[in-house]
Specification:
Elements lengths: L10 E3 L9 E8 L7 H12 L2 E7 L1 H4 L9 E4 L2 E5 L4 E7 L5 E8 L5 H14 L2 E12 L9 E5 L22 H11 L4 E9 L8 H15 L6 H20 L1 H19 L16 H13 L9
Parallel strand pairs: 2-7, 2-8, 8-10
Antiparallel strand pairs: 1-3, 3-6, 4-5, 6-7, 9-10
């Protein structure tokens, strides 16, 4: 008989951790799909803009495969000068209206996913979390000149608004620690949801602040958190200027963008075909979608570069 592992051994609570009740827990873990660095940018923005403190740290030595994602070190002339410690931490933040919330940020676990989910569950119950919300970006055949869409999902239909999002059929996609966490929380009777912002596929490997802004808006609408995005909007304006310059310099890229615009506009004025379909309305199969996601993941050898 295999001895049962203790999920609480996966993390350490910080001394003097305050008592909470009914807080929201957001999470973003690097390692799975995050087109445009959407979730990463949103998480960094929250930590930069709001007062926060560390309340729990996960044991990354147990969870991370260092050889698959080697941490970086700095070599200075004749010695090693710095080591970029991998981390997966839970922070307590205060939003723009003075409301406290939690943010789980860091590297996605490579192993012990089930035990990790149990560990997060114990933290959720310890802090009396009301809802757990994930955020990331997915590549989509849409133009950057049109509003970004969102695919929302949840353990209970009433937790998120799915009225205007494109209809997806039943399909199989690569799993992640975040998606397993949401699934298990639903089984355990905890409210959980997630938002995947649609990022133009030709910008998926660049940092795209517009996608982070769209994510934060969706999170705010679902949770009531007040999450100002002024700094992100400044970054988005600069990114847009750079993208437009590059489009104007390449007739081939411009043709692609214009074709995507026509497809997007046709979707919105006719019978609302799925945005994943081609110009003839043909939907890709589940296998084709899964293969596209797999290709995107295979291209992610490190953090996305700047636009």
């Amino acid at each position: 008989m295999v001895a049962r592992k203790d999920p609480k051994a996966l993390y350490e609570l910080a001394p003097g951790t305050p008592g909470l009740a009914g807080v929201v827990l957001l999470h973003q873990m690097e390692g799975f799909m995050d087109a445009g660095g959407a979730g990463r940018l949103a998480s960094e923005h929250l930590l930069d803009q709001f007062d926060h403190r560390l309340v729990a740290s996960f044991d990354v030595d147990r969870l991370i495969d260092y050889r698959s994602r080697r941490p970086t070190m700095t070599f200075d002339k004749d010695h090693y000068d710095h080591y970029e410690d991998p981390a997966l931490d839970l922070h307590l933040l205060t939003d723009g209206a003075g409301k406290r919330f939690l943010l789980l940020d860091g590297l996605e676990p490579d192993r012990e996913w089930e035990l990790f989910a149990l560990a997060v569950r114990s933290l959720i119950e310890h802090f009396d979390v009301s809802i757990t919300v994930g955020m990331h970006g997915i590549p989509m055949g849409i133009p950057h000149t049109r509003p970004l869409g969102i695919t929302a999902h949840a353990t209970n239909p009433g937790l998120v608004d799915t009225t205007d999002q494109p209809v997806l059929d039943r399909l199989q996609v690569p799993s992640s620690a975040a998606s397993l966490l949401e699934y298990r929380l639903g089984e355990w009777g905890h409210d959980a949801a997630g938002f995947a912002v649609h990022v133009p596929h030709y910008l998926a490997s660049s940092l795209y602040p517009q996608a982070a802004i769209r994510l934060l808006r969706a999170v705010s609408e679902a949770t009531g958190l007040v999450l100002p995005d002024v700094e992100l909007r400044d970054a988005a304006r600069r990114a847009s200027e750079d993208i437009e310059r590059q489009v104007q310099e390449s007739s081939e890229v411009e043709d692609v963008v214009r074709a995507l615009e026509r497809q997007y506009d046709a979707f919105n004025v006719t019978d609302r075909k799925n945005l994943l379909s081609d110009n003839d309305g043909k939907m890709p199969t589940a296998d084709e979608l899964a293969a596209e996601f797999e290709r995107f993941l295979a291209d992610q050898d490190g953090p996305p570069p700047s636009p």
